[in-house]
Amino acid sequence: MKLTKLLTSAAVALGLATTAMAEDKTKVGFVFVGPVGDGGWTYEHNKGRLAVEEKYGDKVETVFVESVPEGPDAERVMTQMALDGADLIFTTSFGYMDPTINVAKKFPKVKFEHATGYKQADNVSVYSARFYEGRAVQGHIAGSMTKSNVIGYIGSYPIPEVIRGINSAYIHAKKVNPDVQFKIVWAYTWFDPAKEADAAKVLIEQGADVILQHTDSTAPQAAAQAAGNVITFGQASDMSEYGPLPRVSSIIDDWAPYYIARVGAVMDGTWTSTSTWDGIGAGMVGIGEISDAVPADIKEQALALKASLASGEYHAFTGPVNKQDGSAWLADGETADDGTLAGMNFYVEGIEGDVPN
Amino acid sequence: MDLSAINPVLLIASLMVAATPLLLAAIGELVVEKSGVLNLGVEGMMIVGAIAGFAFSVETGSPLLGVIGAAICGALLSLLFAFLTQFALANQVASGLALTLFGLGLSALMGQSYVGVRPPAMPRLDLPVLSDLPVVGPILFSHDPILYFGIALTAVVWAVLKFSRIGLILRAVGENHDAAHALGYHVVRVRILAIMFGGACAGLGGAYISLIRVPQWTEGMTAGIGWIALALVVFASWKPWRVLLGAYLFGGINVLQLNLQAAGVAIPVEYLAMSPYLITILVLVIMSADKSGAPASLGRIFHASQ
């Protein structure tokens, strides 16, 4: 009895102590769709979290939950974070969109930031990166380097973000190689290394010698490496451990400056609900080093394309571009508006197959 | 749509690879459940096997040692479960879930320095003449040794359970542990050995993913295969050959649907994506109409004093 009492009072004291300490700390929560060691998407978000810790030191406390399924379970995790006193919660996958909005309604004082979605609220900001700019550079290299003219594309879910990437890569591959063909496989998962590797193998068996992926792990890189004579691109993270071949370049997401700015805004009370969509120019999207496996002239063209995307002088979706059914989308010289891009649910002309519902 | 892009020989060869981790884990769990123990820690033992096998083979340079190491580590981890459920008499469901969580965390910790490392390649069977045969060669005679081991293990487990004295004892313990105890069999000992066998198989299945199927180490890379193995044992009515059939169906349809997608077949992708689950369950449920039920003592705690 005595021991129990002692333990209880110790626990209470500890609880009081931590609450007292937590008062002057800003608590930031992160909800991740994969493990922090996935080497891709979640890995980069976690790097952003670590950058926040490094920047603010003792003034901030970060917590994260990894491998949270998209759907109702995400709501439970976010609710728990909010109940535990988080001031700001980053939810870092498209499928957390509705759960984030639902939980945000219940906790009006907690700030939420949802990545890659489009539903905003008074306490919910949205942020994303213009990955499609990076896809344009990838498409250019892929179209220039393919020998079989078959490019394999591993999609995760048929959401606008992924479809934008496919279209952008296709437009720019087609520009340098009119014979190019895209084979698209939907994995219906963000993270499942075995399945991603299977998808890559299937595409390679069916003649693809370039694999583009929009899933989070490095498994397709490993599969391409085992197959040989296939090139790949790092997705979300540099994945440079698979360079110089198969990985010849990459799209790198750099969330750290954004996370630092937003946490800072919560600290000094200037946080407002915003919508951020930055690309290569602002540094949110990086192009990983183009390896020596890429011929010098192609590398130069790719870097020039990157520079023109960064300066804003060229838009990755510049007309003339038709939709898949042949109807006109962008007239000559016209560029796509953000609204259409944000909700993109159609393929451009030349891509075979249908967008799944 | 271009079905000619699908090479049926390569398709069959890769479906066998895709099915093997599932088969290994499920066969192990089948033996565990036949002894009357429900171990929900398959996923945890698989992921630990995946990193242990990877680490062993990278450090020693021998994929075979890696695979053996994975089996040993899987069995060691399962001992934790055995201790909790057989000596401490803890609830099996809770202990199994804990084992999975523990395994996922432990593997992430062990794997810190192995991200992005390339494992030594597992040699494939290369028989003169036979491996070069058209069609039959790539399907039957040019895989890695673990794949053949998986099939052989299924046959052995089936034969042992059906024909041998050990199999009879194991089944007796699983059907009615009190009766088995009264007859003088060591219920706890039999169960611990079964649990260790299950752990070794799960570890092997995990190592197959990290060494052969992908091959790399990534945190959480088993991504739920352990749970599918658990479901497979139930749907296969605790029968080894049905487990093999189910694993090949599941792995096969998974690879087939990816192939159909890539070839641009005009079936909506969302149906293709769910087809492995649907068809496997459907086939096995229809087959299990013969009333073969679960081991009667499955999940029940045994203590000699009761």
Overview of the molecule:
Chain A: Residues 25-308 form the ABC transporter substrate-binding protein PnrA-like domain. Chain A: InterPro entries: ABC-Purine-Binding (IPR052910), PnrA-like (IPR003760). Chain A: Keywords: Signal. Chain A: It comes from Shimia litoralis. The complex is a heterodimer of chains A (357) and B (306). By secondary structure, chain A is of the alpha/beta class. In chain A, 41% of the residues lie in helices and 19% in strands. Chain A has a six-stranded parallel β-sheet with strand order 2-1-3-4-5-11, with helices on both faces. A six-stranded mixed β-sheet of chain A has the order 7-6-8-9-10-12, with helices on both faces. Chain A has a two-stranded antiparallel sheet with strand order 13-14. In chain A, helix 2 packs across helix 9. With 306 residues, chain B is mainly alpha-helical. Chain B has one domain: Orthogonal Bundle (ABC transporter involved in vitamin B12 uptake, BtuC), CATH 1.10.3470. Chain B contains twelve helices and no strands. In chain B, helix 1 (8-34) packs parallel to helix 6, helix 2 crosses helix 9 (187-213) and helix 6 (145-163) runs antiparallel to helix 11 (240-263). The model of chain B has no long low-confidence stretch (mean pLDDT 89). Chain A binds chain B through residues 34-39, 67, 152, 158, 183-186, 188-189, 191-195, 197-199, 201-203, 205-207, 217-219, 221-223, 225-226, 239, 241-242, 352-354, 356-357, and chain B through 5-7, 10-11, 14, 18, 21, 108, 111-112, 115-118, 121, 209, 213-216, 218-225, 254-255, 258-259, 261-264, 268-270, 273.
